[in-house]
Structure to design on (861 residues):
């Protein structure tokens, strides 16, 4: 009786709850549907993401909506916080019990695994959005029950495979967004059946083939994006039927042919991006008839001709990007009327005119880039009226004259790049009074004179690059006031005096490059207090003093280039503690002593240059532990250090800065870019003795190895055959003996090879790269024989495994004797070879004695 009474009480309570819900217009969820949501909540991590899901009234939970009779009709959960643990996609299966569900949005929750097919049984579903998760696998093919589906959004997942054919039967679909996945295959002509589509976004996938002609059936389309795929062929002419189109993005594909002339039919178009394709021909005048156009990007094609005069009619155009084509001429006078233009990208073309005489535009630019064009003459005067100009980049032209003082009057100028031109004269001091200036690049011009002390007034400056000019005098002490400075590059000038110790006040500095000047004195140890300093480049100056004192306290240093100075002392042992070190160049100084063990612990080291000093003793055996040099050589990819970024809603601009270093490259000191993946060891022109450590053969990523002009003995390690990335190897002018290991023939990349002036013997290995080396690579090794030397070997070539065990009958090389010479003379030569002293044999055979060791100019400049 107690149980019956309790059940009646529960029923009675439920009735009162129902009455309460009806009287108070509160939708009360049903018990079985609440259970489905509770199951979802239990598996979402961290639990705080659904912390509002408490109590019995699930219709009141955040993101949940119910009908008047208590059925859940909408679940919309937008997780903006990344979950700590990925959630299996099976967690979504209980939601299939919400049979009245019309909207399901679960985004950004890190669900992983395939899309549960049970979700696709919700016959009343109108909107499904599972974007921003980590869903994988193919799209479930069985979607025939989703006859009411209007919106399918699955972007930003890891879905793969092609679009199943049944998806083209979703006749009510108005939005299909599969962007930012890894889907592939072709776009089926069946796409033309989705005639209600307003938005189609298949961008950032791997679709290939052609854009089908049937795309023109989607006459309600307002947004069409297939960017960043592998589509090719011509843009189908049927696209002109999409007269409601507002956004068309075909960028980053392989579309070919010319820009179509039917663009004026797309009268509602506001955004057009056909960049990064293979389009050619001229720009059609019809583009200038798109009166609603706000963004035009046809960059990175092979378009030619000039900018059409009709572009002056684009009164709503905000961004125009024509960069990286073959366009010529210049900015037409008609562009004066493009009054809304703020972002103009014309760089890397053949433009020779930045605006005709008297050009007076109605627009106010925020960003102008015409770098790497063919501009000449003075800086265009119309720029002085661009009061909203934030970025001006005219690098890499042939502009002349002086730097105009009116640049300092542009009130919000942030980035000024006029490098690689022909500007002359002095830097106007007023330019440093521009408080908004963040980056100033006047490098590679013909500027002269001193740097004004007013440089200290540019207190917001982050990048100052005045390299490769003819500036002179002392470095102004006021530079130390630039506390936000990240990059200071004054290299390649004629500065004198000392490096100011108060540069330590530039506490944000990451790159300091004053190489190739005439600076002198000691390197200030105070620089070590700049905790952010990663690149210290001081090569080719007259710095002196103990190197160990100079390199105190560096904590985050990655590049040290002190080459070609007059530094003294021993190898700086503190450098062994610089665990982020990637480049260490101490070559061409006056350093001495031993190189200690422990250098192999510098796991990130890519470049080690100790050449042209007076180091002695054995080469450290732990060089083979240099972990970064064990990685495969990645090729000469220019290293770009990102030091700033400017964001705009339409496009992001990164500011890069490259580092130059000076290395012994193919026997000469050359200026190279600091290159990612570039691995080099140069120990040449020292007094090293002992043997070459075999462990160096473990450095499979090594590109260049130079140990020439030392007193190294022993043999060339056969382990060097493992140096599969090696392109340059120079061990000449040592005391090496034994055979050249045949294992070296497996190095297919070897282009420069020099073992001359040693005591090597035996047959020169044949085949592969060795067939490309001339006799100078092997000269002055009296016991070597075989091609390319004009010294033959007396016995047949050894077997493949003949490196370890020589043939008993091979006594060494003999001179080639003419056929007419008698047997007696030949026998006499053999007797001399066996019994005479080495010096006498050399006289008889005409083999030159090795020259006396050269005196190396250790101050190669």
């Amino acid at each position: 009786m107690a149980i019956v009474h309790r059940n009646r009480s529960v029923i009675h309570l439920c009735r009162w709850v129902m009455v309460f819900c009806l009287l108070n217009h509160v939708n009360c969820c049903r018990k079985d549907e609440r259970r489905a949501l509770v199951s979802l909540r239990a598996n979402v991590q961290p639990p705080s993401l659904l912390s509002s899901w408490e109590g019995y009234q699930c219709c009141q939970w955040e993101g949940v909506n119910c009908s008047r009779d208590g059925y859940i009709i909408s679940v919309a959960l937008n997780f903006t916080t990344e979950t700590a643990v990925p959630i299996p996609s099976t967690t979504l299966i209980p939601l299939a019990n919400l049979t009245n569900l019309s909207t399901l949005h679960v985004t950004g929750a890190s669900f992983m695994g395939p899309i549960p097919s049970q979700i696709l049984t919700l016959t009343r579903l109108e909107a499904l959005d599972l974007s921003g998760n980590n869903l994988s696998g193919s799209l479930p093919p069985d979607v025939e029950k989703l006859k009411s589906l209007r919106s399918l959004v699955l972007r930003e997942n890891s879905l793969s495979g092609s679009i199943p054919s049944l998806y083209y039967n979703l006749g009510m679909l108005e939005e299909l967004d599969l962007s930012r996945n890894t889907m592939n295959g072709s776009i089926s002509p069946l796409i033309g059946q989705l005639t209600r589509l307003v938005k189609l976004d298949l961008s950032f996938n791997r679709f290939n083939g052609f854009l089908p002609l049937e795309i023109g059936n989607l006459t309600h389309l307002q947004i069409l994006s297939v960017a960043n795929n592998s589509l090719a062929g011509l843009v189908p002419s049927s696209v002109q039927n999409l007269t409601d189109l507002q956004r068309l993005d075909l960028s980053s594909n392989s579309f070919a042919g010319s820009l179509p002339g039917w663009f004026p039919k797309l009268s509602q178009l506001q955004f057009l991006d056909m960049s990064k394709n293979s389009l050619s021909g001229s720009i059609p005048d019809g583009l200038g008839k798109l009166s609603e156009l706000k963004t035009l990007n046809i960059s990175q094609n092979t378009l030619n001709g000039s900018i059409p005069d009709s572009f002056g009619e684009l009164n709503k155009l905000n961004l125009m990007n024509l960069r990286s084509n073959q366009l010529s001429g210049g900015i037409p006078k008609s562009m004066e009327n493009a009054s809304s233009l703020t972002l103009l990208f014309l760089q890397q073309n053949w433009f020779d005119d930045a605006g005709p005489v008297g050009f007076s535009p109605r627009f106010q630019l925020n960003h102008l880039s015409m770098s790497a064009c063919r501009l000449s003459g003075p800086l265009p005067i119309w720029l002085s009226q661009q009061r909203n100009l934030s970025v001006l980049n005219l690098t890499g032209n042939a502009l002349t004259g002086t730097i105009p003082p009116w640049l300092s009057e542009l009130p919000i100028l942030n980035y000024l790049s006029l490098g690689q031109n022909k500007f002359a004269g002095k830097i106007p001091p007023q330019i440093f009074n521009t408080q908004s200036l963040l980056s100033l690049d006047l490098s590679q011009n013909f500027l002269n004179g001193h740097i004004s002390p007013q440089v200290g007034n540019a207190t917001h400056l982050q990048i100052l690059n005045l390299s490769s000019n003819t500036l002179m005098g002392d470095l102004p002490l006021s530079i130390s006031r630039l506390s936000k400075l990240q990059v200071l590059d004054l290299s390649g000038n004629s500065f004198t005096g000392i490096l100011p110790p108060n540069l330590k006040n530039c506490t944000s500095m990451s790159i300091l490059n004053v190489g190739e000047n005439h600076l002198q004195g000691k390197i200030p140890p105070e620089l070590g207090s700049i905790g952010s300093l990663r690149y210290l480049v001081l090569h080719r100056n007259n710095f002196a003093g103990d190197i160990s004192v100079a390199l105190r306290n560096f904590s985050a240093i990655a590049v040290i280039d002190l080459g070609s100075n007059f530094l003294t002392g021993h190898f700086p042992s503190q450098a062994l503690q610089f665990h982020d070190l990637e480049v260490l160049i101490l070559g061409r100084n006056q350093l001495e002593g031993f190189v200690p063990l422990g250098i192999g612990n510098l796991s990130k080291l890519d470049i080690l240059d100790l050449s042209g000093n007076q180091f002695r003793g054995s080469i450290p055996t732990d060089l083979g532990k240099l972990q970064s040099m064990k990685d495969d050589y990645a090729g000469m990819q220019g290293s770009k250090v990102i030091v700033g970024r400017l964001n705009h809603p339409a496009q992001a601009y990164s500011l890069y800065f490259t580092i130059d270093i000076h290395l012994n490259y193919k026997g000469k000191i050359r200026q190279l870019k600091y290159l990612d993946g570039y691995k080099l060891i140069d120990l040449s022109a020292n007094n090293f003795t002992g043997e070459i450590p075999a462990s160096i053969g473990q450095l499979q990523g090594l590109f260049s190895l130079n140990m020439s002009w030392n007193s190294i003995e022993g043999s060339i390690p056969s382990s060097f055959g493992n140096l599969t990335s090696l392109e340059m190897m120079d061990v000449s002018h040592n005391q090496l003996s034994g055979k050249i290991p045949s294992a070296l023939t497996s190095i297919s990349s070897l282009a420069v090879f020099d073992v001359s002036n040693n005591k090597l013997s035996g047959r020169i290995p044949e085949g592969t790269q060795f067939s490309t080396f001339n006799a100078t690579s092997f000269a002055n090794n009296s016991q070597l024989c075989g091609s390319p030397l004009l010294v033959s070997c007396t016995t047949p070539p050894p077997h493949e495994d003949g490196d370890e065990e020589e043939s008993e009958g091979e006594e060494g090389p003999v001179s080639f004797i003419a056929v007419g010479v008698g047997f007696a003379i030949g026998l006499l030569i053999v007797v001399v070879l066996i019994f005479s002293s080495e010096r006498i044999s050399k006289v008889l055979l005409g083999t030159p004695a090795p020259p006396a060791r050269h005196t190396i100019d250790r101050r190669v400049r």
Summary: The mean pLDDT is 86.
